[in-house]
Design brief:
The protein is an alpha+beta fold. Helices cover 33% and strands 26% of the residues. The two termini are 30 Å apart.
Length: 89
């Protein structure tokens, strides 16, 4: 049975092109779903270990995505509140 795939955001170091090359080498080019100047989003079957990466400063699991509406501040506060409530239960 195939494993579940989880999305992670990798915050790239001072030399993003080297950090990205490292991610491609460790996880495979097909794992990378989005690349920006300071981060990359990867879909992985296993939880990544930052100790294996020299060019990544932080890794976070993406638990929810949403489109930004006309009141982003309220939307962000609502999302944070939802996460806090979920963690308490």
């Amino acid at each position: 049975m195939p494993k579940n795939v989880t999305s992670y955001i990798f915050f790239l170091g001072h030399q993003p092109h080297l950090s990205l090359a490292e991610l491609e080498s460790v996880f495979g080019e097909d794992s990378i779903k989005e690349i920006q100047a300071s981060y990359a989003i990867l879909d992985l079957e296993d939880e990544p270990n930052i100790d294996r990466l020299g060019g990544t400063t932080k890794i976070s699991e993406i638990t929810k995505t949403t489109k930004i509406d006309q009141n982003p501040e309220k939307q962000i506060l609502d999302l944070i509140s939802e996460q806090i409530i979920e963690q308490k239960t």
